[in-house]
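Example pasted here:
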Amino acid sequence: MVEVRKKDGESIESLIRRFSKRVQQSGVLIRAKKSRFKESEKNRREQRDDAIRRQKIREKKEYLRKIGKLDDFENARFKTSRGRPNR
């Protein structure tokens, strides 16, 4: 628990600033945010499938880099048409 006491002549703004700084340094917010959307651990099959997917993406990027089309591949993911991603 983070505790901050008001010093003599200290303004409310500086008290709040000091409190916020201590909360950030203590890591309370980070722990709370991590536990908010707790994900269950993946089983071995899911871990393997994810590793295979990452490997395929890595190979595709390497291939595109070799043939000189990596810029087109990366930019296509972020271009939008009327707020929707291009397909």
About this structure: The chain has a mean pLDDT of 84. Residues 44-85 form one domain. The helical segments are 12-26, 28-36, 44-67, 70-78.
